[in-house]
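Handout, section B. The chain below has 389 residues.
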Amino acid sequence: MGKNLLIVHGGGPTAVINASLYGAVMEAKASAEIGHVYGARGGTGGLMDEKLVDLGAMPDDELALLLQTPGSAIGSSRDALEEAEYQRIADVLQKYQIDYVLMNGGNGSMDTCGKIYHTCRDHGMDVLVCGIPKTMDNDLSVTDHSPGYGSAARYLAQSVKEVAADVHGLPIHVVVIEALGRNAGWVTAAAALAEDEDGLGPDLIYLPEVPFDDEKFLAAVSEKLKTKKGLVVVASEGLRYADGTPIVDPVMTVGRATYFGGVSEKLANLVIKHLGYKARSEKPGLLGRASMACVSPVDQEEAEIAGREAVRAVLAGETGKMVAFRRVSGAEEPYRAEPFLVPIEEVMMYEKTMPKEFIKEDGSGVTEAFKEYARPLIGGALPRMLRLE
């Protein structure tokens, strides 16, 4: 009778979180050491309610569907856990004789992963714990990038290119596209990749790392309108003024989760009111993290690798670690990255934002250095489009 492995999802899903799930399940099924491969239905909340599904008993052809399914097939959660909840988790792990726990998620989930590890260790439990990185926001520390980001970046870049083509054909307004990302501008910045090859891309990009200024924004738009009749602006949902206050009042804040109002609508209205120019707002929202049509093959492959590596890590006796990626190719070489393990304490709640060298000095765009970083992650060039001047 083999040992038992449990996989838990946390936080917002991505287009490739199920690829990590697939990798972990298939790697575990291939091991003679593992008896059951469980999934917690509904994240940590489902775990505490003992809602476990035996993924190892599923046929391989059904499991393969995970590779084309966005969202979390086993469900996720954003539970706020205190000491009593961690004790409950430890009790459930003991009840079901869980030997290995894999936590798949972003910053909050890696914090949970670390606390599960500490709880098991402090209670003398022989449970090995490993984190699988997942976040479209790309804000996990230490790792060069996170599974989920490449696909979200490709979706935004492709969408912005398509909107830019539309505006180029009927240049009568300023279109403001709002991108996901509370505090880190990685996804927003990816809009710049739209302009590769044919120049159909955004005119202005505004990141949460740069304090926003209404007057500077209006001046930049006004200057662009001197030479173009239609503009595309991409703005992060988390834009803030210099004093740290959001440019629009949050609808609600619960713990780490802040529900923002309409940043794109606010900027479009500024253009209409102060410049007297037609403007409209667009907000892809969850489409940006759920699109399988724009999934990056590089992202999907690395997501699966992360799941497999987490299983290999615990089978090798590793615990209190997270799978991360380091880039091992030079700027002129084909993209290559390799997985490695990082202590979970180095990841827990450390948020990686865009470095200064990736942001233009005037704060309204990104540098070529960022584009060189991000291009390989979206899995190939976007479709080239015809642009007649």
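Note. The radius of gyration is 22 Å. Compare this with the example in section A.
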